[in-house]
Input
Amino acid sequence: MSKKITDNTKVNTQALNDNRGKYILCLFVSGKSPNSAFAVVNIKAICEKYLKNRYELEIIDIYQHPDLAITEEIVALPLLIKKFPIPKKRIVGDLSNTEEVLKGLGLV
Amino acid sequence: MKNFTFPKSPTGIQGLDEITNGGIPKNRPTLLLGNTGSGKTILAMEFLVNGIVLFDEPAVFMAFEEKKEDLVMNLKSLAYNLDTHIANNKIYIEQVLINPYEMRDTGMYDLEGLFVRLEQAIYKVMAKRVVLDSLDKLFYGLDNKILRSEFLRLLSWLKKMKVTAIITSEIGDHFLTHMGIEEYVADCVIALDNRVTNQIATRRLRIVKYRGSFHGNNEYPFTIDEKGISVYPIIREAFQQEPTSKRISSGIKDLDEMLGKKGFYEGSSILISGTAGTGKTTTAASFAYSVCKAKKRCLFCAFEEAPKQIIRNMGSIGFHLDPLVKSGILTFYYSRPTLQNLELHFLAIKKIINEIKPAVVILDPITNLMTEGPNSDIRSMLTRFVDFLKTQHITVMFTAAITIGSIERNPSDEGISSMVDTWMMVQDIEIDAERSRSLCVMKSRGMAHSTDVRKFKISTKGITLLPIVANSKEPLAVSKRKAKEHDTLSTSKESIWVKENSPQ
Output
């Protein structure tokens, strides 16, 4: 009985780890502004280094999708939204401070 | 260069366009500063609504502070019809939530998201007027350097968009200077204030700066009521007003006689002061009666006696006011001064004046309003009110109750008497051991008026003014002087003595 529970726990933890392993990120930028360009370069580098093969990164130009600015309640840009794993997190800036970004993503 | 007029966008707010000489800078941002509860949001919203209603300029309101629903709810009590304007696509209100949980320390950023939203909003209704309410909420928690650069960028962006904008901001803790944003970056800065003096709150408005335009730089009182904001400037036009030489009868034949044989000037201001029971209200009512009989409208503002009582009392001396009220030629405004503050009184009276367009306005007695606030405030209020009436060519008569022996010492009375064109004094005098009422014209600008003290007689036939003849056949002044020599001054005599020695 007790063994079974342990097994279940193991399986669950495994599933959790799988989920935890995958990151869904969304970066909102404003065209080719310097801050936006930096943010794109920085987040790609971070993802490649810390989340290789376990991330989905979507880059959205707010100029192309201005309505998203309202639905996503965007004021400050660039804005990185960590959609998964929860908790959802909003990180503003050009992401040049890697340590803070990792903190925000829950990777440290 | 000469005759260049700065393009302006009229606010449609009563008084504000006068002190800004036409409105706020067109297609430029204006900064509106003020503490919480000073009326920033209402002023800003009224600017937008007036734009829609009066000038057909659609509007955008970006709310950083209040929820859209709350905003519409809160402004329901004012006649702005926001729901209708929203439905007609004339105004677009967007709530911009500033997320306090955003991480903001990973590098440089800007407020481009706001600009994108603002641009969308402007195109949605093709807005010509924009309000951002309020800046401090938007910039809350922003890095100082970014705040400064974004604020400047916002101002120039708004200019580029060719919208007339109002940006509101707190002033209390010197937010702007505190945050490193000085007012000088804006073309026009207006400050609002809600101050409490002697337990009476007065809202005030001041144009701090207005680049490229002259403007009134005093503090101007303003009020907010169900019709919105009204600012009370001392109207410049009052001084340029062409005075008329037309006369208007006082309603008392003998008094007209004393006033250069013709009566008051039309559009002048008249003060009747006197102690209690000397016939001030009666004199005022007889004036009202004669004005109405001449088929001119009259507004009688009673602050002491109820209109019904005045009607009854005047009926007893032959002035039947009731039919005049019924025919609408005589209007009564009755209010207890304590009910609301002075500005609201003037506001209410002003509204009636705009409605009925009277030729004459009577305020009886003005001294009852005096209890309502500090003297300097009342004086400036009265001055504004008199100026307003002058621009409308309305003759105004005040009565003022004064206490015995204080004729020259009563500062409030003195304050009014220097403001008016004609000043008459009614008082009790004693002639040969008999008390009787007297009337004299203390001053009357621009006419050869009598300096006599006349006996003032109220009878069932109305008012008559008789020359005072003492039994001794001596003129009053002579008998008075003799009495003084005998050192037998009574209080009422004393008051006359003071008057004789007055500079008037």
About this structure: The longest strand of chain A covers residues 23-29.
